[in-house]
Amino acid sequence: MTAAAATADSAPSAQAPVVASTAFLTWVLAIINFMQVLDNTITNVSLPAITGFLGASSSQGAWIVTSYTVAQAITVPLTGWVAGRFGQVRIMLMAVSLFGCMSLMSGFAWSLESLIFFRVIQGAAGGFMVPLSQALMLTHNPPERRGAALALWSTTTIVGPVMGPILGGWITDNIGWSWIFLVNIPVSLFAGITIWRMLGRHDSKVVRLPLDWVGLILLVVWVGSLQIVLDTGNHAGWFESDFIVTLTIMAVIGFALFLVWELTDKHPVVDLSVFRNRNFVIAVIAMGLAVANQRGPMIILPLWLQTHVGYTAQWAGFVLAPSGLMALMLVPFVGRNINRIEPRIFSTLCFGLFATSYYWRAHFTADADYWTFAMPQFIQGVGIAMFFAPLMTMSMSNVTPDKFAAAAGLQNFSRTVMGSFGISAYVSLWEQRGATHRTQLAEHVTAMSPQTEDYMRRLGEMGMEPSRIHATLDQLLTRQAFTMATNDIYWVALAIAIFLMGFVWLARPPFSLHSGRRVR
After folding, report:
1. What letters, b where the CB count within 10 A reaches 16 and e where it falls short, cover 358-380?
2. In a 3-state reduction of DSSP, which class is residue 237?
3. N or C: which terminal CB in the chain sees fewer CB atoms within 10 Å?
4. Cα separation of 74 and 82, whole Å?
């Protein structure tokens, strides 16, 4: 037997511990990402209980969510510089520890102000955790396993926002709102110990570059202003509010100055050089549009079910649940085949499934049963399993390992901002279309209309008072108007999904991921 043959024969047994430890590390990193993403939505349904306990109004309570998302949006694009300056593993350990500590403090917050303060720090720590979990997966997995790792990571990114309201509602109703934060503590502790033991001696190379203070300040100004506009604009009436107008101007000017400064500074705080990579640009645009097009309708459906169909928050969550279930079931298939099937094919199939589910939902009626509402979610869940991993593979192709953290930070920043934009845009469009349909329907419902007269007569024969008859008629008009508005939303989402099916083909092969270190 030759030396080469002997080496080949011994390779599987030698690699077994590496594969096993790498797989465990990958799962831990996925759990870290899931924990952070979950906290984006787990508080949404708990806000009434939290504000009631802390003696705050609902409008003030909205800052519990906004403070977290703003801080997260600011630190995500900073990940590349911070990780390069201090090391990926060191920053991940700091972020996970800080996230757990702030979760503990949030659970025992004594006032709204204290809770918002803790949520700001928690969100800032979480902003580092998302891109670093992705970067560490790529760095410490062999090239042939990176597709499977990204498939697992992407599923936690999608399932987290779906599970957040369901888990948050159950915990609040059955245990208490404090536990929506306290559940993070054992997870943070376990994840921190695991990262320290497995990666403590495998940190990335540290480059001691000077801090770009001007770029950092400009980043905080424009990203913070933009995220507040997206989170609060709809409630404030958009540009009818001087506050929103001022923040919008700050965001636009701040972004322009930031772009000029970062492109000309010798040591920029955000490395924009990855945008020279064609595939990175195409994939980031596609991912941003797709996230906006997925998050917006995902918010509209339970909102419509609860306000106009009579569903509880928990049952509205059950309508969304099949998408997460299908995604979890199909992740192994996507992971096994991500290196065999071209990412553009996977992405086209994904957006085609999204388009199919949107077309189905564009024909919803308010009197449909649970399974009618839930069945399209199974189709969307199949698409979700193929969503992030191919686009991330496409975006990170030809990105060198030393740029993994910077590229992951910018990629996730785009996803975060576009997700907020999608929610704001779709909710505004839904309310606008609902009001328009309400006005149009009201024009045909008059006392002179035979159908209206007959309907009011039948209600009167049932013993209903005239005031109740008019209230019932008004409620039916509103219900039908917002059902039509919900259908409009899905027609828009359908058009964007069809556009994305072709857009991803602007990317060009090869779609390879550079080699990196592995845990031993």
Report:
1. bbbbbebebeeeeeebeebbebb
2. coil
3. N
4. 12
Q: Which residue has the tokens 């504000």?
A: 51
Reduced DSSP (H G I as helix, E B as strand, rest coil) percent helix, strand, coil of the chain, to 5 = 85, 0, 15
241 DSSP assignment: S
Interatomic CA distance for residues 354 and 333, integer angstroms: 18
> In the chain, count of helices (H) and strands (E)?
19, 0
Considering only CA atoms, which of 88, 72, 62, 76 is closest in space to residue 39? 72
Residue 273 neighbours by CB distance under 10 Å: 12
Distance of CA 325 to the CA centre of its chain: 17
- Closest Cα to residue 507, out of 351, 284, 261? 284
Give the alpha-carbon dihedral of 104, 324, 343, 145, to 10 degrees. 60
Q: Is the peptide bond before 510 cis (omega within 30 degrees of 0)?
A: yes
- Which tokens sit at 138? 């790529």
In this structure, which amino acid lies at residue 302? P
Q: What is the distance between the alpha carbons of residues 427 and 300, in angstroms, rounded to a whole number?
A: 7
**H or E element: which one contains 347?**
helix 343-361
Rounded-to-10 torsion of CA 191, 389, 288, 413: 30
- Give the per-residue pLDDT at 290: 92
**Contact (CB, 8 A) for 228 and 250:** no
Banded model confidence at residue 141, pLDDT cuts 50, 70, 90: confident
- Predicted model pTM: 0.78
Q: Using an 8 Å Cβ cutoff, are 161 and 37 in contact?
A: yes
Residues 79, 132: contact at Cβ < 8 Å? Answer: yes
Report d(CA 288, CA 294) in Å as an integer.
Answer: 10
The answer to whether the beta carbons of residues 110 and 388 sit under 8 Å apart is no
CB–CB of 507/393 below 8 Å? no
22-26, 238-242, 351-355, 462-466: the lowest-pLDDT one: 462-466
Decide if domain 15-211+269-435+486-506 falls under CATH 1.20.1250.20.
yes
Helix, coil or strand: residue 366? coil
